Amino acid sequence: MRRLPLFLILLLGSGTLPVATAQASNPVPVPAAPTSAVGGTEAINGAVAGVLITALAEQFGGRSVSIMLDRVNVQPASIRDRTVIGEGRARIEGDEDWIGFRFSTLYDTTFNSAAYPDITLGGVTSGERDVPNDTTLVRELDDRVVERLGQEFTGQVVRLQLDRITTVEAGSRYLRINASGIADFGAEGTSPTQIEALYDRRGKAWLRVNYELGPGAGMQELGALAGG
């Protein structure tokens, strides 16, 4: 289980849990968020917020990230562990636009630590709206995923057949693109594929490009391709 250190400043808010940027260097004790507001204890809130902001900063190419946790739900997974799921909003490099996300992780009560979280962007804020797909961006996204799959599966020719593509405007700056289809590996067969990406229209850069192969497979961060 991958774990990340908690080195962030967390500030208590009204009904939400604001978190300072990932560059914060002087950690302080994490204040308890009201259980009625976010459904968790002080220790769980702090550990989960820490791994979320660190993971998002990493997945956004090392950019600074602030988050607000709007909902956290904790359920027993075992005597020692807790399953933590919830919703929040992220802001990149102090931009005025917030990007909604859902998350899930596993919290270890013995070591007061949370596993590297699964994060899905979008679908939790009212400010999003569907917009027409941009054929140029879709082609760029296809090329990036094919390139990364070719690096991962060396020596195989990979083709993508995307049959469902949706573009959502997240604030005035970002486009969130989700796609699904088939990855064709030629003689090696095919695999269902899901793609999730975030594009910065102002910076003309891909901030996050993830893919998932096969049923139940985890999202793979295209770190080498994100950010440009």
Descriptive report:
- With 228 residues, the chain is an alpha+beta fold.
- It folds into 2 domains: 17-125, Nuclear Transport Factor 2, Chain: A, CATH 3.10.450; 129-221, Nuclear Transport Factor 2, Chain: A (Roll).
- It has 3 helices and 12 strands, in the order βααββββββαβββββ.
- The chain has helices at 35-38, 42-59, 135-152, and strands at residues 17-19, 65-76, 81-92, 99-108, 113-114, 118-121, 128-131, 159-170, 174-184, 190-200, 205-213, 220-221.
- The strands form 2 sheets. Strands 1, 2, 3, 4, 5 and 6 form a 6-stranded antiparallel sheet that branches. Strands 7-8-9-10-11-12 form a 6-stranded antiparallel sheet, covered by helices on one side.
- The chain is globular and about 50 Å long.
- Mean pLDDT is 77; it is low at 1-40 and 221-228.
Topology at a glance:
Elements: E1 17-19, H1 35-38, H2 42-59, E2 65-76, E3 81-92, E4 99-108, E5 113-114, E6 118-121, E7 128-131, H3 135-152, E8 159-170, E9 174-184, E10 190-200, E11 205-213, E12 220-221
Q: Work out the strand percent.
A: 35-45%
**Could you name the CATH topology of the largest domain?**
Nuclear Transport Factor 2, Chain: A
Put simply, the count of helices is 3
Q: Helix share of residues?
A: 10-25%
Average pLDDT works out at 77
CATH top level of the largest domain is Alpha Beta
What does the radius of gyration come to?
Answer: 18 Å
Principal-axes shape call: globular
- Tell how many strands the DSSP assignment holds: 12
Question: How do you describe this structure in short?
Answer:
By secondary structure, the chain is an alpha+beta fold. The chain has helices spanning 35-38, 42-59, 135-152, and strands at residues 17-19, 65-76, 81-92, 99-108, 113-114, 118-121, 128-131, 159-170, 174-184, 190-200, 205-213, 220-221. The protein starts with 16 loop residues before the first strand and ends in a 7-residue tail after the last strand.
